């Protein structure tokens, strides 16, 4: 890390379902001692918590239970709470945030308010074909959400190595649903890519490599900017 920048740097991970961006986000957070801020985790934390009496949390839960996506302003609010709590201590790896132009604009505002460094957006590219082949082949444990891939021994045994339960295929990992999620992502990413490439902050990475290969490509793309 360059010493000419006293403020920690920040990264945004973009990628369709099956791109492995969550894994890369985790690896990058570890490598650079950044905080892995996943909007999905923030929502799940609320879903799994006891929230009676808190109207904000109740509303998040109600939408989740009805399958309604959380509105942009709610996601921005959740993220801002975390930034407000941590920005003096660490930089961030944003995972599944921003997912829309209004969310990206919300983040730009926070960058100014909290005086954090402008993040680089790392866009991990995989084709629909590759996403399909990766996602429709994974299994998971419905008790601890652990995910298994065809090369794992537990996958072949069809038994979770953590709790011994039978593994299942996720209902949103069927080819039809994966295709829909991928296409929804593609239409959003066009706007977001445009937004970040205009300011020279978009780094496009070939995601059709091994996990370590993608990680190396990300590091190589980042190094000149650190
Ligand atoms: Zn399990």
UniProtKB/TrEMBL annotation:
Q: Could you tell me one molecular function GO term of this UniProt entry?
A: AMP kinase activity
Q: In which pathway does it act?
A: Purine metabolism; AMP biosynthesis via salvage pathway; AMP from ADP: step 1/1
Q: Which Gene3D superfamilies match?
A: P-loop containing nucleotide triphosphate hydrolases
What reaction does this catalyse?
A: AMP + ATP = 2 ADP
Q: Which GO terms describe its cellular component?
A: cytoplasm
Q: Which GO terms describe its biological process?
A: AMP salvage
Claim: Protein biosynthesis is one of the keywords in the record: no
Determine the domain of life of the protein's source. Bacteria
Per the UniProt record, which residue ranges are transmembrane? Answer: none
EC number(s) on file: 2.7.4.3
Cite the binding residues for ATP: 18-23, 138, 209
Which amino acids does the record list as binding AMP? 39, 44, 103, 170, 181
Q: Where does the UniProt entry say this protein principally localizes? A: cytoplasm
- What is the annotated localization of this protein? Cytoplasm
Q: Which UniProt keywords apply?
A: ATP-binding, Cytoplasm, Kinase, Nucleotide biosynthesis, Nucleotide-binding, Transferase
InterPro entries xref list: Adenyl_kin_sub (IPR006259), Adenylat/UMP-CMP_kin (IPR000850), P-loop_NTPase (IPR027417)
Domain notes for this protein: Consists of three domains, a large central CORE domain and two small peripheral domains, NMPbind and LID, which undergo movements during catalysis. The LID domain closes over the site of phosphoryl transfer upon ATP binding. Assembling and dissambling the active center during each catalytic cycle provides an effective means to prevent ATP hydrolysis.
What is this protein's function? Catalyzes the reversible transfer of the terminal phosphate group between ATP and AMP. Plays an important role in cellular energy homeostasis and in adenine nucleotide metabolism.
Q: Which protein family is it in?
A: Belongs to the adenylate kinase family.
Note the HAMAP family from the entry: Adenylate_kinase_Adk
Quaternary structure and partners: Monomer.
| Name of the protein this chain belongs to | Adenylate kinase
The protein's organism comes out as: Candidatus Kerfeldbacteria bacterium CG08_land_8_20_14_0_20_43_14
Please spell out the taxonomic lineage of the organism that makes this protein.
Bacteria, Candidatus Kerfeldiibacteriota
**Gene that encodes the chain:** adk
């Amino acid at each position: 890390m360059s010493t000419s920048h006293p403020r920690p740097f920040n990264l945004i991970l973009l990628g369709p379902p099956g791109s492995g961006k969550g894994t890369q986000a985790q690896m990058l957070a570890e490598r650079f001692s950044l905080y892995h801020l996943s909007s999905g985790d923030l929502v799940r934390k609320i879903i799994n918590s006891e929230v009676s009496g808190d109207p904000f949390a109740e509303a998040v839960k109600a939408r989740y239970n009805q399958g309604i996506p959380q509105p942009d302003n709610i996601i921005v609010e959740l993220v801002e709470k975390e930034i407000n709590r941590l920005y003096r201590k660490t930089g961030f790896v944003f995972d599944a945030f921003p997912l829309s132009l209004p969310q990206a604009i919300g983040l730009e505002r926070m960058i100014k308010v909290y005086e954090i460094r402008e993040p680089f957006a790392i866009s991990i590219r995989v084709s629909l074909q590759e996403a399909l082949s990766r996602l429709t082949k994974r299994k998971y444990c419905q008790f601890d959400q652990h995910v298994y891939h065809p090369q794992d021994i537990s996958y072949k045994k069809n038994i979770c190595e953590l709790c011994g339960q039978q593994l299942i295929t996720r209902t949103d990992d069927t080819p039809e649903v994966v295709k829909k999620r991928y296409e929804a992502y593609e239409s959003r990413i066009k706007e977001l890519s445009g937004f970040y490439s205009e300011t020279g902050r978009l780094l496009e990475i070939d995601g059709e490599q091994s996990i370590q290969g993608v990680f190396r490509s990300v590091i190589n793309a980042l190094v000149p900017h650190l």
